[in-house]
Amino acid sequence: MTSDSNPTEKRKPRVGIIGTGNMAMALGKALLAAGHFVAFGSRRPEEKKDFYEEVGVESRMYGIQAAIDAGEVVIITLPYASVAGTVRKFAGALRGKVVIDITNPFASQPNDGSSGAQVTATAIGDGARVVAAFKTNFASTITEPADSSGRPREVHYAGDDEEAKAIVAGLIRGIGFEPVDYGTLAQAVVLDHMVPLMIRLDARLHKFSRKSSFRLAGP
Questions:
Q1: Contact between residue 32 and residue 38 where contact means Cβ atoms under 8 Å apart
Q2: Residues facing 38 on adjacent strands
Q3: CATH superfamily of 15-205
Q4: CB atoms < 10 A from the CB of 25, how many?
Q5: CB neighbours (10 Å) of residue 177?
Q6: β-strand 129-133 against 154-159: which pairing, if any?
Q7: Are strands 178-181 and 98-101 parallel, antiparallel or unpaired?
Q8: Residues near 110 by Cβ (< 8 Å), separated by ≥ 6?
Q9: Could you tell me the mean pLDDT of each successive run of 10 residues in the chain, 219 residues long?
Q10: How many CB atoms lie within 10 A of CB 13?
């Protein structure tokens, strides 16, 4: 973990990251490098010594509850199938926090047209402040925010809480990316559908080794 040491700087939000996959590691490294306090949460923290050592943090891995309690912003990086049950279990602790859902439903896309992030918000219940973000970014690009043109890559985000979205946009800028607002949580379903296309274009058709990213081009 790390924390801001310069009191003259605007304090950066404390972050809890739930999960220990590639995106958790990449986002953790980027946020730590940007000066955020980061707490990692795992269902089995005692088994995650290698993960924590690779991130480069000289402290122990937390349980999920402790990581949520430590963060003002909580990033969910679990497999999609585990998200609803996990956030329902910890709903009380998540209410009122800015929750970034980076997970992708793939074949488990809700049949009613809802976005995956809407399902997460419903599982948390009243007081949910969920923002969908980082869904369309490969883990291998998180610590390389500039693309081959030298411009910042985009992070597409969506949510219903404008204050929460502003916090997330600031976090995105703080690690070197350009935030692009895609609207409400209902409209985040577009991001859910962009991900399978991105994987198909990158890995299967053009062999970009998961280093590509989408860009919204203006007129």
A1: yes
A2: 15
A3: NAD(P)-binding Rossmann-like Domain (3.40.50.720)
A4: 21
A5: 23
A6: antiparallel
A7: unpaired
A8: 116, 118, 119
A9: 50 94 94 93 85 73 93 97 97 98 94 96 97 96 93 97 98 98 97 92 78 85
A10: 17
